[in-house]
Specification:
Elements (H helix, E strand, L loop, with lengths): L1 H30 L7 H10 L7 E4 L2 H4 L4 H8 L3 E3 L7 H14 L4 E5 L13 H8 L6 H11 L4 H7 L2 H4 L8 H8 L35 H16 L3 E6 L7 H13 L3 E4 L23 H18 L13 H12 L10 H8 L5 E7 L6 E7 L2 E8 L3 E7 L2 E7 L4 E5 L2 E4 L5 E7 L4 E8 L3
Parallel strand pairs: 1-2, 1-3, 3-4, 4-5
Antiparallel strand pairs: 6-7, 6-13, 7-8, 9-10, 10-11, 11-12, 13-14
Helix pairs in contact: 1-10, 4-13, 5-7, 5-11
Length: 451
């Protein structure tokens, strides 16, 4: 009997520990800071990819995922690539990301962006860089080793990386609905890790001092980490390629230092700071700031890189696959994302006729010309899903699958909230807000006057 009671007690202890671990894990995922359009969505998107589908893996700091656009590579060369980086990523995190990648993928090429190689010791990395890169990587021996390499000791700070809830438990006051919904959200990254932006730098990017004299070095711990990356790629049959994105405050002496490192290990290196004219980069239009390209500039660099890959590496053309793959789906998503369905229509009739052709568009239509009869409708595929005639101020709720729509009227204005984001009506006779259920975003806001 005592043996049986002891067994039950031990079982309860183990069950309690397991349940506590599960609860802490779920609480951590809710409370953890989420670096949307950066490390969180890049990392989660990588793990959402089908195994052994990626042929080119791009690793490095934000210069990597703001420079190589995988969808341009796929559309023009059939290359299946993914940008697996994090902002200000030190080289030991690049090594960790590669170790994680080789557990799930078998890339034929690894493209490493070299911004963090010169003059950056692994033990002098600010907390924000480590948080960006480590928070969303699953716990493993490799992660623990990388963390110790950065911090040099096991203490309370170290444990806050192992269990991020120790760092972010105070966020409960800031938690919003999106923190909960993200936990269950489809993590597929439709940009394949790339950060898309149309933003143009306020000032022309200045490369005039690229050739200035100076001195740089590569720390011993960085060299040791680079050697591990070289060996890891060799062991997994991947060709390692180095590249440098174009940016201000990068100098020829840094290019020489990286080139010498590349030559030592017989690694090919492309520095786009030396190819500004060759690829016709426009310093007034192709950058979002002094350090990062925008979509237009990234497309130029990516086309050159894709041509280089096609001529120097053996890579399949995935466009020739019999069945559509996730890059085909991502391209279709990008087209939808960049489409304004009512653009160019002259009146409300033309707009609604165009929207009626696609059931994935949900339109919130407001009629406010007649102040005695104020109306709002929700349309989908040309059919009215909901209609409200406002006779006094109030709030109405409507839900389509996972999409929450809130309609509201104050004394003088209408408001529309879709998935917790507020959109104001334009004030003309007719106003239309178009939500795309595929991209999960508002893609058009237009207004018309009665003829």
């Amino acid at each position: 009997m005592m043996h049986r009671n002891s067994f039950i007690f031990s079982f309860k202890i183990i069950l309690f520990i397991l349940l506590s671990a599960v609860c802490m894990g779920i609480a951590g995922r809710i409370l953890n800071a989420k670096f949307i359009n950066d490390s969180t969505t890049i990392v989660d998107g990588f793990y959402a990819e089908k195994k052994n589908d990626i042929d080119v893996l791009v690793v490095g700091s934000s210069n990597s995922f703001c420079t190589i656009d995988p969808l341009v590579l796929y559309e023009e060369y059939g290359i299946a690539a993914y940008d697996f980086g994090s902002s200000s990523q030190p080289l030991n995190l690049s090594l960790l990301y590669l170790k994680e990648a080789f557990k799930r993928q078998n890339p034929r090429v690894v493209a490493l962006e070299v911004n963090m190689i010169p003059a950056n010791s692994l033990t002098a990395i600010p907390e924000n860089r480590l948080r960006w890169g480590l928070t969303d990587i699953p716990l493993s021996i490799d992660k623990l080793t990388c963390l110790y390499q950065s911090l040099g000791k096991v203490d309370a700070e170290y444990m806050s990386y192992v269990f991020p809830i120790l760092r972010y438990h105070g966020r409960w006051k800031e938690v919003s609905k999106s923190d909960y919904t993200y936990l269950w959200k489809d993590k597929t990254n439709m940009g394949k890790g790339y950060l898309s932006t149309k933003e143009i730098a306020a000032e022309p990017v200045d490369f005039s001092d690229y050739g200035s004299e100076g001195e740089t070095w590569i720390e011993d711990d960085v060299v040791a980490c680079f050697e591990q990356i070289v060996r890891l790629c060799e062991q997994n049959g991947a060709k390692l390629v180095l590249f440098k994105s174009p940016r201000q405050q990068w100098y020829r002496y840094q290019t020489r230092a990286v080139a010498e490192l590349a030559d030592k290990y017989a690694i090919e290196y492309i520095d786009y700071n030396e190819r500004i004219s060759e690829i016709n980069l426009d310093v007034t239009a192709d950058f979002r700031d002094g350090e990062h390209l925008n979509d237009h500039g990234a497309a130029k660099v990516t086309r050159h890189f894709g041509n280089w890959l096609s001529n120097h590496c053996v890579l399949p053309d995935r466009r020739e696959d019999d069945n559509p793959n996730s890059w085909d789906e991502a391209l279709q998503y990008r087209v939808r994302e960049q489409t304004m369905p009512c653009e160019g229509t002259a009146d409300i009739t033309g707009c609604m006729e165009r929207l009626a052709k696609d059931d994935n568009y949900v339109a919130v239509v407001t009629y406010g010309a007649d102040k005695s009869r104020l109306h709002q409708w929700i349309y989908r595929g040309g059919e009215v899903l909901y209609h409200k005639e406002w006779k006094e101020p109030g709030v109405e709720h409507y839900r389509i699958n996972r999409t929450d729509i809130v309609l509201a009227r104050t004394e003088a204005t209408f408001q529309v909230m879709i998935n917790d984001i507020e959109y104001y009506e334009q004030g003309n006779d007719w106003s239309v807000i178009v939500y795309d259920t595929v991209t999960d975003a508002v893609v058009d806001v237009v207004s018309y006057v009665n003829e």
